[in-house]
Design goal:
This protein is of the alpha+beta class. Among the domains are: about 70 residues, conserved putative lor/sdh protein from methanococcus maripaludis s2 fold (Beta Barrel); about 110 residues, Efflux pump adaptor protein, beta barrel domain (Elongation Factor Tu (Ef-tu), domain 3), CATH 2.40.30.170. It contains seven helices and 18 strands. Helix 2 crosses helix 4, helix 2 packs antiparallel against helix 5 and helix 3 packs antiparallel against helix 4. It is elongated, with a radius of gyration of 35 Å.
C-alpha cells in the first residue's frame, strides 16, 4: 500500500508540473502574440550640429627673460595690468630661495600685525560677519573655477581668522614675533636686492604660463586669409618657442576658434550668425560665438572661423580643441519612427486610451537616429502630450480599435 501511495504521489507531482509548464508557455505565447508594444512620448530638446577639431586663436605675445631661473607670480588666466610683475627671474637657486622666504615672511608679518590690531574682542561680531562673507565669496569663486580670485580671497580671509582667534594676552607675544621677522626681512632684502629681476607686462592683458610656438603663426590677422587646406596642414610640432620663454601675454578681449567643416555643414551658417559651441571645459559649455568667416569650399570642405568676446581668461591655455558646434536647436516630443503612420495625407500616431487606439495627428519637426521630434501643441489638450502611451505595432490598426 505504501508503494502504491508513493506511485500516485509521483504521478500527481508530474501532472502538476506539466500543468504549470503549459500555463507558462500559454502566457508567453499570448504575450508575444499581442502584436504591439508601448512607448511613452517624452519632451526633449535636440541640437543639429557637428563635432569638429580646431584651434583656439588669440592676439598674444611671448614673454621672455634672460634669467636662468624664473618663477611665475600669477596664475593661469589672471588679469595683469601694464607694468605689473608677472614673474621673477633669479640668477641662482639661493637667490630664489631667499626671495620665497622673504615673501613668506612679509605675509606672516602682515597677518600678525592684523591679529595684534584685532586682539580686542569688542569687535568680534563685526569680524564674524566679515569672515562669513569672505567664506561665501570663496565658495562661489571655487564653483566658478576663478583661481586667481580664490587666491586673493583666501589671502584676505586668513588674517581675519587669525585676528578672531587672538586674545589680548597674546598681543605682547605677537609684537615680539613681529620684531624678529622684521630683522630677518632686513637681512634677506639686502641679499636678494641684486639676485632677482622683475619680469613685467608691457601692456594689460591676461597671463598664461603656456607657450607652444604658434603665438606668431595662428593670429587673428592670419585667419582673414587662411584656407581650409592651410589649417589641415598645420603641423604643431614644426614650431618651437624661445628657450627663455616664461609664458605669454594674451591681449584684447576677443578670441577665435577655427576649424574645417564638411561643406554641407558649413552651408548652414553665414557671417554674422551666432552659434552655440560646447567645449570640454565645463565653464565653456553653451557658449555663444559669432561667425566671422565661412571660407571658400575646397574639396568638399570649408574653413569656419568663430569669435567670442567672453571668457578669454578661461581659454588662455587652450590651443587644439574638439568642440560641438550647434547650428539649430529643436524641441518637442520624441516619437519612435515605428509609431508614425501616414493615412489619407495626414501624419499621426496611435496612443492607448482606455484600452483603445486613439489617433493623434502630429507635425514632424526634426529627424534624428531612429526617432522623430514632433511639435508639442499646448493650445489643445486633445493633441499629443508628454506621458501619452504610443502604440508600436506592425499589425493592422485603426482609430477606436480595441487593443488586446
Amino acid at each position: 500500500m505504501r508503494k502504491q501511495g508513493e506511485f500516485y504521489l509521483k504521478l500527481i507531482s508530474i501532472l502538476l508540473a506539466v500543468v504549470i509548464a503549459a500555463y507558462v508557455l500559454f502566457s508567453v505565447l499570448q504575450s508575444s502574440g499581442s502584436g504591439y508594444a508601448l512607448e511613452t512620448a517624452v519632451y526633449c530638446e535636440v541640437g543639429d550640429g557637428v563635432t569638429v577639431s580646431g584651434f583656439v586663436v588669440r592676439s598674444e605675445e611671448v614673454l621672455v627673460s634672460a634669467s636662468p631661473i624664473v618663477v611665475s607670480e600669477l596664475t593661469e588666466g589672471e588679469r595683469v595690468g601694464s607694468g605689473q610683475r608677472v614673474a621673477t627671474g633669479y640668477q641662482s637657486g639661493s637667490a630664489r630661495e631667499n626671495r620665497e622666504e622673504l615673501l613668506s615672511l612679509r605675509r606672516q608679518r602682515d597677518q600678525l600685525a592684523a591679529a595684534a590690531a584685532g586682539s580686542d574682542s569688542s569687535n568680534a561680531p563685526a569680524l564674524d560677519a566679515e569672515i562669513s562673507d569672505r567664506i561665501v565669496t570663496l565658495s562661489a569663486q571655487t564653483a566658478q573655477q576663478r583661481f586667481g580670485a580664490m587666491r586673493s580671497t583666501a589671502a584676505d580671509l586668513q588674517p581675519l581668522v587669525l585676528r578672531r582667534s587672538v586674545s589680548g594676552d597674546d598681543a605682547a607675544l605677537i609684537r615680539r614675533r613681529i620684531a624678529e621677522i622684521d630683522r630677518r626681512i632686513e637681512t634677506l632684502s639686502a641679499q636678494t636686492s641684486t639676485g632677482a629681476t622683475a619680469i613685467t607686462a608691457y601692456e594689460s592683458g591676461y597671463f598664461s604660463e603656456r607657450t607652444d610656438g604658434l603665438e606668431t603663426v595662428l593670429t587673428p590677422e592670419r585667419l582673414e586669409t587662411m584656407t581650409a587646406e592651410d589649417l589641415l596642414n598645420l603641423d604643431e610640432t614644426a614650431y618651437s618657442y624661445p628657450e627663455n620663454a616664461v609664458g605669454r601675454l594674451v591681449k584684447g578681449q576677443t578670441w577665435y576658434f577655427a576649424a574645417v567643416l564638411p561643406e554641407q555643414q558649413a552651408a548652414k551658417c553665414e557671417k554674422g550668425d551666432r552659434l552655440t559651441v560646447n567645449f570640454a571645459d565645463s565653464s565653456l559649455q553653451g557658449l555663444w560665438m559669432r561667425v566671422e568667416r565661412v571660407g571658400t569650399p575646397e574639396d568638399g570642405k570649408c574653413l569656419l572661423v568663430l569669435s567670442c568676446e567672453r571668457m578669454l581668461q578661461n581659454v588662455t591655455a587652450l590651443r587644439r580643441q574638439t568642440v560641438d558646434i550647434v547650428f539649430d536647436t529643436y524641441d518637442g516630443l520624441r516619437v519612435p519612427k515605428t509609431a508614425i503612420y501616414y493615412i489619407n495625407g495626414e501624419t499621426g500616431v496611435y496612443i492607448l486610451e482606455s484600452a483603445r487606439a486613439d489617433w493623434k495627428e502630429v507635425e514632424i519637426v526634426y529627424e534624428y537616429g531612429s526617432d522623430y521630434l514632433v511639435r508639442w501643441d499646448k493650445s489643445d489638450t486633445d493633441n499629443l502630450w508628454p506621458g501619452d502611451e504610443l502604440i508600436l505595432t506592425s499589425d493592422d490598426i485603426e482609430d477606436g480599435k480595441v487593443m488586446e
